């Protein structure tokens, strides 16, 4: 099954590393994502890079400025799929589902940012579309956020709640070592 396990890297763009993005958790997430990317490349397994292109001019991800560019460590290679999106869900308004079916993808390993936004939205759709989906908890991160009632929630709390929303329902939350083992 290893060739049909696709690594999906969500929104690892320059703006995500800027201070104005906010207080975040998992400071080692980029290193873990880079290690997973290297492992997938060494295994010649399929990789998808997702990039957010905002429709809001004041966004860090407004097209044609540096925040929208992929971080250097996550530059796609010529044979890796790029999905551009303007909403959190990478499946909406894109050919991601069609491309994954053409690749005969049986499972997805999803990493990136932010756990409670684009990662969660994309993973929910993947699960609903019937893909066996995994989320690597240490290779995703979130930002602090106020909850519905105005109480400030730490990035760790936001991240943990999002993982809880996904695990067992839409995906299986796994460790980086468990992700490596999927391609063994």
Task: Summarize the structure in short.
Keywords: Hydrolase. With about 180 residues, this protein is α/β, with parallel strands linked by helices.
List keywords for this structure.
Isochorismatase-like_dom; two-stranded antiparallel sheet; Rossmann fold; 184 residues; single chain; hydrolase activity; hydrolase; alpha/beta; 8 strands
Major sheet: size, sense and barrel closure? 6 strands, parallel
Order of helices and strands: EHEEHEHEEEHEH
**How widely separated are the two ends?**
10 Å
How many strands?
Answer: 8
Q: Any idea how many domains? A: 1
CATH topology: Rossmann fold
Task: Give the C-level CATH assignment.
Answer: Alpha Beta
Mean pLDDT: 95
Work out the helix count. Answer: 5
